[in-house]
Every structure is written in C-alpha cells, then in structure tokens.
From TrEMBL:
It is an enzyme of class 2 (transferase). It comes from the Eukaryota. Residues 76-87 have a biased composition (Pro residues). GO terms for molecular function: ATP binding; DNA ligase (ATP) activity; GTP binding; mRNA guanylyltransferase activity. Residues 518-530 have a biased composition (Gly residues). Residues 64-75, 502-512 have a biased composition (Low complexity). Residues 21-130, 467-530 are annotated as: Disordered. It catalyses: a 5'-end diphospho-ribonucleoside in mRNA + GTP + H(+) = a 5'-end (5'-triphosphoguanosine)-ribonucleoside in mRNA + diphosphate. This is mRNA guanylyltransferase. It is found in: Nucleus. One of its GO terms (cellular component) is nucleus. The lineage of its organism: Eukaryota, Fungi, Dikarya, Basidiomycota, Pucciniomycotina.
C-alpha cells in the first residue's frame, strides 16, 4: 500500500482521545442524564466534597417554557418573569479569546501559526430545502418509511477516515423500482420525504438494469460556480446502507464505501455521459461521491480539499473505517471544529415586553429577549441562556414576515462579548441538541483543539496506523486445541497407538481422494490455507 494517504486507501487513526475530538451525532442525540454548563456559568470548587467541580445552582426556567403552544410569537408574559441572568462566577475565568484583528494567535506547545490551515471564510449558501416533490399522501409516506426501516433492519483504538464536513442538509436516498420504473426519494432529519424525478441509478451490470431497494447516506449542498456565481445543487454521497435489498450496514465502512463507489456512483456517472443536454438540464441535482482521506492525511484535507470546495465547510468528520453503520448517535463518528466555530443548536423562544397601552398584551413591535431552550429529551426543552441579536438583524427579521419563535437556531459562543451569537436557522431539525451533546460541545469550546494541533498529531496517528496494519498482516496464532510436538516418552505412544496396539492406516474411500484435513492447509490437496 502506498505511503501517502489517498481516497481509496484504508484509514486508520490512533486512539480518538489523542486529539480531543467531540462525538458527533449523524441523526439523533442520545439520552444521557448528565447536563451541560454554559460558558457563562463556570464551575466552582467545593472544599467539602470529593474535589470535583460543582456548578452553581441552576436558574429557574420561565413558567411557560416547559410547555407552550406553537405560535408566531412567544407568550405575552411580562419581562419580570424572565429568569435572572446567571451571575458571573468567581474564580479562574475562561481563557480570553484573541481579538478579531489578531492574525497570528498564540498556540500551545510552541506550535507555529500556519495560514494554510485557516482559509478565509466565505459567505456561501446553504440549502433551505431538499429538492423533489413532497410526498404528502399519508399512506404512501407511511409505506415508504416502513419499507426504508425494513431494508435497513432498524425497526478505544480504532481505524478512521477523515473528510471535510460539508455545510448542507443531511439526507437518506431511497431508490426503489416499481411497475412504472425507478423512483428516487430523499428523506431528511424531519422524516419529510421528497420524490425526485429525472434521476436514474443504473445497475453495475449494464444500463438496461436499474438498482432497486437501495439506500444511500449523503449531504445535499449548493455549490457556487466561481466564474459565473451560478448555484449548482449537488448530492454528496458517502455511505451505503442497502444495495439491491442486501443490508450491508453490518459491514465496515471501507467495504460499504467501496461498493458505493463501484456499484452505484461509477455506473451513474457513466450513464450521465450518455444523456442528452435537455435531460441533464431537468435533473434536480448532480450526484458525486465524497472524498475521503486516511486519518493521518489531515493536512491534505486542510491544504487540498477545503480550499477547493465550492460550498460551505463546517469542520472535519472522522469516521471509523472498521465499524458498522449505526443509526442515531454513533460514538465512532467524531466531529472537529475550530474552537471559535463550535456551535450548538437550541430552540429559540421570543419574549416580548408588555405594550405601553395594555400591560397584559405584548408589544410585538418592540425588540424581544431571545431565549435559548435546551433539549432535555422526554422532559421537553427548558431555558438555558439568552442570545444576543443586533438591532439591525431584528429589524430585518421583523419585516420578513417569517415565524421565528420555536425554530431551531445554530449559535456560537462569543468570548469577547460574553454571549451566544446567531449563526443560522436549522429548519432541517425539529429540536435542539440534547443536553449531553451540549455538555460535550461546551467542553470543546473551553478546551478546543486548533488545526495546527491536529496536524501535529498526524505523525503519531500514522505510526499507529502502520502498527495495526503490520499486526493484521502477521500470521494468526494456532488454534487453542492444537497439539504441540510430542515430548520425550510420547513417541512410542503415538507410533503404536493406545495400549500398544498399532493404529491402522487411514482408509481411502473407493473412488474418492483422501478427505482433506481441517486447519491451515493439511491433507493431500485440500484444507484451509491462509
């Protein structure tokens, strides 16, 4: 195998905790009982306990925060019912964020700032919906979901691949064949199903055959042509769950990805070259396979992949090359973001001040308080903190006519202003991050890993990868019940048989060769060989 990492090689990373990644959830958050602490509320030490850091007592949530109807605006309770802003804690403050104008921040362990690892952020579009015609028929929607679940069978030291984390919409692709031909559906996180027309995924055996009962995992993005500025919708596929009714979720990623490339994407791309321009123009998007690197090829992702992207980038994704596909929260999928870009999803709630004319009525024209509600699972969403929104942004929202209350927002922590800052709306999600995910991201914000630190670990990851590869190439140990060579005093026993009787030679069956011996290659011409 070549020494340099490439897209078709197997990726093996060192232990995940070496570089301090935070676990990422591909679809849903897990249900742990631990809770996060806002960066605004720093833990204080208790001299009488076991030495663990304890958080200040949580502030009470607004009375109506636990359960409230969906509406265009928040309930008209007066501002007096707002929870008090958590007091600034005493003790060691959080590390100060370098000022925005500083171009070369100080890095730990004597690492030097590398501008190549920090390409300028570009304001690129993110899809606000997935293409296709929504499937609104209740019976058809239910049948498709059941069919998808039936196909997928969902009713320490590891080997990893790394790729850029695209800023798009996560979707599953369901390909089925009916009496009317092949049908392609996209399913988002909200279980909304869209049927996409003018798309064909031919079989690897030839364009006269089509794939059916096939499920892909991917990300829908919008690429921007650097010359014309045109928006080009694309589907980046990176995993295969089911291929022609064969569930491959239990297979390792390296096998699933290989089948995806050879049996799905390659025939699709060949078929695309045979289509006339008018057919291509009607297709809702283009399908390409997402590039992967060996885990120690982190620098190549920063240097080669990210600068060439035509869509937004949201960090890196490390995926176990040996693990099966796991729906929901997968601890073997690791997400990395620069500490300054670690974001959290909350549910937004607007709290308006009372009207001057009638204190019992809210003033919908005044600027509200922007509350962030954290997901507590079956307990609902409860108040966590507030978000700062500029007057200019609020004026734009107010005159847009859109509903903002009860929408999921993505926010980042602004150390300089000591507040959460709005990034975007996540209309592809129903609920915010679960409380344990929030806690994990808070730790990443406080103890973030910079790009230079990731690259500095590449050599260590590569050595561990080589060690695992060598261990796999070594011959396997003998079976536990295999007998060793006879010791002194046993030769006569084996030669003459038990109790001194000579053993008869093995009988050869008439018309057949001797039966091969089991194990690692015994027998006249048979047996297992490794």
């Amino acid at each position: 195998m070549a020494e340099s990492p490439n897209v078709n090689a197997y990726a093996y990373a060192d232990q995940p905790d070496e570089v301090g990644y935070s676990a990422a959830s591909p679809f849903y958050a897990n249900n742990d009982d631990s809770g996060p602490v806002s960066p605004r509320v720093q833990a204080a030490a208790d001299d009488n306990d076991d030495g663990l850091l304890r958080s200040p007592e949580p502030q009470p949530a607004p009375p109506e925060a636990a359960s409230r109807p969906h509406s265009a605006y928040a309930s008209p309770a007066p501002p007096a019912s707002l929870p008090p802003r958590p007091a600034q804690p005493q003790g060691q403050p959080l590390p100060a964020c370098p000022p925005p104008q500083q171009q070369h921040p100080t890095l730990p362990n004597g690492l030097q700032y590398n501008p190549a690892l920090h390409p300028p952020k570009r304001d690129l579009p993110v899809p606000d919906r997935i293409p296709g015609e929504p499937v609104l028929d209740g019976e058809k929607h239910w049948n498709l979901r059941k069919h998808l679940a039936d196909l997928c069978g969902t009713g320490g030291t590891a080997s990893f691949w790394v790729c850029e984390k695209s800023d798009g919409v996560r979707v599953l692709v369901l390909i089925v064949a009916t009496g009317f031909g092949q049908e392609v559906y996209l399913i988002d996180r909200k279980d909304a199903i869209h049927q996409c027309y003018w798309l064909t995924f031919p079989h690897q055996d030839g364009p006269e055959y089509n794939h059916s009962n096939t499920v892909l995992d991917g990300e829908f993005v919008i690429d921007v042509d650097p010359e014309t500025g045109a928006h080009i919708p694309r589907l980046l596929v990176f995993d295969l769950l089911v291929l022609d009714s064969e569930n491959v979720m239990a297979r390792p990623l390296e096998k699933r990805y290989g089948r995806l490339a050879k049996y799905v994407v390659e025939p699709y791309q060949k078929y695309q070259k045979t289509l006339p321009p008018d057919v291509l123009a009607n297709q809702p998007f283009e399908v390409i396979i997402k590039k992967q690197e060996l885990s120690y090829g982190i620098e190549a992702v920063f240097r080669d992949h990210v600068p060439k992207l035509l869509h937004g980038n949201d960090g890196l994704i490390f995926t176990s090359a040996e693990a099966p596909y796991t729906p929901g929260t997968d601890p073997k999928i690791l997400k990395w973001k620069p500490p300054s870009e670690n974001s959290i999803d909350f549910v937004l709630q607007l709290k308006f001040p009372p009207s001057a004319a009638n204190e019992r009525e809210p003033d919908f024209y005044a600027k509200p308080v922007f509350l962030l509600l954290m997901n507590h699972g079956h307990e609902g969403s409860h108040y966590y903190d507030t978000m700062e929104v500029s007057d200019e942004t609020w004026e734009q929202w107010k005159h847009s006519g859109e509903q903002y209350d009860d929408r999921v927002v993505e926010v980042v922590w602004d150390r300089a202003r000591d507040t959460w800052k709005f990034v975007r709306f996540r209309d592809d999600k129903f609920e915010g991050n679960f409380k344990t995910v929030v806690a994990s991201i808070i730790r990443s914000i406080e103890h973030g890993v910079e790009a230079e630190q990731l690259v500095a670990h590449a050599g260590r990851i590569r050595r561990a990868w080589k060690a695992r590869a060598a261990a796999r190439a070594a011959p396997p140990p003998p079976p536990r019940d295999a007998r060793g060579p006879p010791v002194q005093g046993q030769q006569q026993y084996h030669a003459n048989g038990h109790n001194g009787y000579a053993q008869a030679p093995p009988q050869q069956q008439q018309g057949r060769p001797p039966a091969p011996m089991g194990g690692y290659g015994g027998g006249g011409g048979g047996g297992l060989r490794r």
